[in-house]
Amino acid sequence: MSATAPSAGPAPSQGGDRGVTVLLPDVPVFGPVTARRMRRALAVYAVVWLAGSLPGWLGAGLAFTAFGHGLVLPGGGFLLDGSFVAAVVAVVVFVLSLALWWYAGPVVLPPLVWTAAAVVAALTVAPRTVPGAAAAVVPAVPVVLLVLAVVVHLVRHRAQHRRRAALNAELATTSFVVSGPPDLDTGPPVAESSPEDLAHLRYALDIALQPLDRFDGFIVLEQYREGALRYQLTSLGTGLGMSQYTRTPAFSGYLAEAQRNAIEKMLDRRVWGYWRTENLWGNLSTSRDPLATDENIMLTGWHGTMLGFHALLNDRRYAEPGALTFRWSPDETYPHDHHAVARQIHDGMDRSDYTLIPCEPNWVYTVCNAFGINAMLGHDRAHGTAYVEDLRERLRWSYEHEFLRPDGRIVGVRARHLGLSWNFWTGAAVQLNTVYWMHPAFPDLAQRAWWLLRRNELSLRDGRPVLPPRASNRVDVGSYRLGRDTFAQVAITMAAREIGDDEMADAAAALLAERETVEERDGARRYAAASPMVNFYAVLGRFGRRHALRDLLGHGGVPETWRTGPRLADAAYPDVLVARAVTDGRALDLVLRPGGRPVRTVLAVDRLVPGATYRVSGARSAEVVADGDGRALVEVDLGDRLAVRLYPA
After folding, report:
1. Where does 247-337 have alpha helices with state H?
2. What is the mean pLDDT of residues 504-531?
3. Quick check: 560 and 381 in contact, CB under 8 A?
4. Span 209-244, pLDDT tens digits
5. Is 263 helix (H, G, I), strand (E, B) or coil?
6. What's the CATH code of the domain at 580?
7. Is residue 530 part of a domain?
8. In angstroms, rounded to a whole number, what is the distance separating the alpha carbons of residues 297 and 301?
9. Pick from 424, 441, 460: which residue ends a domain?
10. Is the pTM higher than 0.85?
11. What's the domain range around 86?
12. Crossing angle for the helix pair 486-499 and 428-438, nearest 10 degrees?
């Protein structure tokens, strides 16, 4: 692990690394923004409660009293004449409307259901009804429920504060290593992919390299929640990008094309068209432009993270005006670019009192905002902006005081309008993903969250990772199927590898290798029982390494030699699988494997010195001469693992 205990102070600095101690903050009962939102919501409800209670208190008639009781309490109007079944049905329908509001953002639905139940109760109340105790009981119910909710929250909060004190006693003697920038003179580490690595990468490549208008191999359920195409595309694109960063930074070719396809598929109306509906019923706005809002970070944050990967590892074509054009129809288009995506996230956060901004209208998710932060970081590193630095302290405050429990659990979601959250949205799945995606910008908070996970929930049993058997730990987020913890184990691999806990990462990877049934088709391997998105995340975890995401996005850790030195520009897919490709600025070192049977094939190399002669080992010719554009063709016989080196003569 990156945390060691005990420690009397900061760990020795190594290459810019530093040791830090990170205590849990003194979190109030409600954060200041949350408290304001709750007071406002309570004030509005108090007016509704008073208006709904008055008809019964004043004897204004059965219909008015039933309607008023229905406003005071969902289904409350039916209790006036003893229609308990109708009252229960009204409550159930109202709860379902709340669930749909959370699921897809229709903010108008719960008040419509609530008001409709009150109207129906007023129209159907029995004419000879004697109000009796109902006039007093119905208005009292929500008051009692609110008091009970506050009491329960206070009791939990105090218990969490007691746990905080015990945890801080341990954290005070624990030092976390926050990594500095990678050494760009020697270059970040570049490993060689194994045949198994390449087989799993081929699954992602095969899906990404299909024509832009096709989505074969994806799961198309609905476009509102975790299984949406935008999330599958982002897990696909970042997995491919991570493989390039840690294994083949000197290779563009089909790997860069696959990443561009993932980025450009996000422009397909089938991917982003959900925003028309969500913006209409969530914000009462008819705008279809997915960037003309302070919300929708569920698109911009995830898309922007892929754009950052591509800009740092390949080229900056998406910074050109109109490079990202969302087409609703031939006559209705929304031209944007990488700059616009990053700026939209920054400006939305700058205007938000939470600093964090919603995904669906109203709903603020911590992990989505971590993607938004990474989207800004990638843009900052590629284009020299300072979006994250401008917001860093506000973002940190919000994560630490509005979206954290006293015991250190991250609050996964909060209703922006009401300030409410709920306890089950603080499970290990939320923590694991936030650990990974928060690490580039807030490594100390991510490492503390990992330490808490290891201490409280994540353990090794017989050398294999074990999480509590909760439903949230046993769901495939890409297909919504319950019962298996494959995604949780993949998330453990991702987070542990990024944090530097190789023991846990290796254990999770070993468990997946032992337990999961692997389906192989044309040389491409996938976990047969897992959704495409979980398989894409498995690629991201497989190609990760210690601090890789932080090195790339947090530090822009791409040496100038990688940007300008010789590069494998093209290779035939799937005939040629690139296991390693790296340059020191002058030479190019490759490790290749055949995708099938032995093959004689031609490799295209670019970014050479025009007219210069280069020696080549591992190829059919010992020398090549770069043309006027700095390109050369290298012919190889590829039958098994083949090392190729090209260097100046």
Report:
1. 253-265, 269-272, 274-283, 297-313
2. 97
3. no
4. 999 999 999 999 999 999 999 999 999 999 999 999
5. helix
6. 2.60.40
7. yes
8. 5
9. 424
10. yes
11. 32-158
12. 30
What are residue 642's phi and psi, to 5 degrees? -135, 120
CB neighbours of 624 closer than 8 A, spacing ≥ 6? Answer: 605, 613, 614, 616, 632, 633, 634, 646
For Cα atoms 219, 326, 306, give the angle at the middle one, nearest 5 degrees.
60
How many Å apart are CA 9 and CA 96, to the nearest integer? 52
Share of the chain above pLDDT 90, in %: 91
Whether residues 637 and 513 share a domain: the answer is no
Q: How many whole angstroms from its chain centre is CA 393?
A: 21
For residue 167, being part of any structural domain is answered with no
Amino acid present at 111: P
Distance CA 369, CA 358 (A): 8
pLDDT bin (cut points 50, 70, 90) of residue 430 is confident
Contact 497, 540 (CB under 8 A): no
Query: Of 506, 488, 504, 495, nearest to 547 (Cα)?
Result: 495
pLDDT higher than threshold 80 for residue 133: no
- 297-322 confidence digits (pLDDT tens): 999 999 999 999 999 999 999 999 99
Q: Compute the Cα dihedral for 387, 388, 393, 394 and give only its sign.
A: positive
- How far apart, in whole angstroms, are the C-alpha atoms of residue 624 and residue 487? 47
Boundary (domain end) residue, out of 540, 563, 586: 563
State CA 107 to chain mean position distance. Answer: 23
Give the tens place of pLDDT for each residue, 379-428: 999 999 999 999 999 999 999 999 999 999 999 999 999 999 986 656 68
Q: Is residue 549 part of a domain?
A: yes
Contacts (Cβ under 8 Å, ≥6 apart) of 86: 75, 78, 120, 121, 124
Do both 279 and 411 map to the same domain? yes
Dihedral over Cα of 382, 387, 393, 395: its sign: negative
